[in-house]
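Friendly challenge for the regulars: who can give me the structure tokens for this chain first? No prize, just bragging rights.
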Amino acid sequence: MRITIEAFAGEDDSCGTIARMSFDQFKGTDSYIASADLRASVNTALALERPLLIRGEPGTGKTLLAENVAAALEMELISWHIKSTTKAQDGLYVYDTVQRLHDSRFGDGNVSDIKRYIKLGPLGEALNFDGRPVLLIDEIDKADLEFPNDLLLELDRMRFHILETGEHIAAKRRPFVLITSNNEKELPDAFLRRCVFHYIEFPDGELMRQIVRVHHPDVEDKVLDQVLEIFYGVRDVPRLRKKPSTSELIDWICALRKGGVDLSSIGGGIPFLGTLLKTEQDVELIRGIKRGLA
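First reply, four minutes later:
Bragging rights claimed.
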């Protein structure tokens, strides 16, 4: 059912900025199968013009979501991959003093034109963009504890000042901000309150079938049954340090097919186990279990 904010907007409505925006814009793409709950969260954040905070275990498609939202809605994607040393100011702009010093020493260009040495960061690009872009802030929990609050200030303002040139940049349209987190650090309550939140659950068997068929459309049903039985069986093993994710499953099926393995008769062992598992302890654990069952 289509729900339009306009139906609830009145003259005294404090949500006037979201009037006439519908909740049914993003429906997934041919290459990205999104659950109904995930689609609802994306469209709610789009309509409310709030950042969308996405959590979920690695391999559940958090980063890919931003790429597919941009593709589906024909929006520009601007990516900001966060590191432990990242500061909110870095996202706005940087002043390349090293390059200016180099040019002043070797006479390359007009060093009095400071604007030449100002480089917009991903957030600065998003705010300076003519249309409405998608801004991906990837793995926010890698940054220090002050980063989310500093970022929140910039996202609230939607404008910034370049001190070195006196230039003032204000967003013509609020970008759609999609933030991913692996939950390595707790995020501040003030930050969380301003976000639409969604946790991507690991796909169940039926949804996983749809995802696999996007990448391997010609896999027979009985073969897919066997593959998924082994895959979820591995994920359910206690004491597994890193459970295989969707991306590992897709790669594993590809390896099996390219290796000429009979996909319908792999129950006695797990070929190419290193495609599914990524630590020595996990590989030895699964091999030990298989030897015990032999």
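The first strand starts at residue 52 and ends at 55. The beta strands are 52-55, 77-81, 93-95, 118-120, 134-138, 159-162, 167-170, 176-181, 196-199. Your move, everyone else.
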